Amino acid sequence: MIYVNGDSWSQRSNINPDYSWPCVLQSKAKCQVINQSAGCGSNSRMLSNLQKFYQTGARPKIILIGLTIYSRWHLPSKMGSSWNIGTMVAINDRYGEKNDEILPFYINYVYDEIEYIYQMYNQIWQMHELATNYFKCPIIFFNSWSPDIATMHKEIYKNPKSWIASIVDDTNDIAIKDYIHAFNFFKTKLDDWNLVLDTWSDLVYNHIDDEKGLHPGHPSPQGHTMICNNVLDTIEQRYPLLHKELV
Questions:
Q1: What is the CATH number of the domain that holds 223?
Q2: Averaged pLDDT, groups of 10, the chain, 247 residues long
Q3: Per the domain annotation, does 166 fall within a domain?
Q4: In a domain, 230, yes or no
Q5: How many domains does the chain have?
């Protein structure tokens, strides 16, 4: 079994037949591909899904995560659903409901850039710990579409303390020491994490649908095939024996 989670760049297609890259992967794999991605899905939603998936007793051979932008957050909701809230949209992943009334509160009173960047790395760390110590399988994190993540990552880990000082108003705030400790901690984990920072959006920039396409602003069927091949190449490079077993 292969487990996939992500946002709209990994979710099932919004039309039939499904042409998403996890579906393409299923056509190539020797085992089942489970895809729990959702449009506007947050990294915190992916972590929550992964926790629930472990509780079912499922044990995949590998976990593939398409990271999304850190400004999104998930709020548990009715019947196992989640409200995925960002700076642009609030949508329920199961029922498709939207609620723009939440956005002003989230933007003005909840979202804080450094806290949510910290939370993204916290979620990566927790997902890696789940995969390594509980699922007992590899996990690979892909940067689906945000060049900001790749740029920011390089800047942070040159010198976490200097980076933090460059983006906060008050370096004497009580929280700053905690952030410095946290990002220095994450820096010690980078070699353990399988982070692919080059974006899929750069890979498929000539194969993204316009407003007349099947899914505007997202990969075309050919783009999804290219992403699938990129994912398989990454697995083969990092886990050649597992690649032979799975494909």
A1: 3.40.50
A2: 97 93 98 96 97 98 98 94 92 92 94 96 98 98 95 96 93 93 97 97 96 94 98 98 97
A3: no
A4: yes
A5: 1
Q: Is the residue at 56 inside a domain? A: yes
CA-CA distance, 42 to 44, in Å (whole number)? 5
* Tokens encoding 226: 């290219």
Range of the domain at 234: 2-112+124-147+193-246
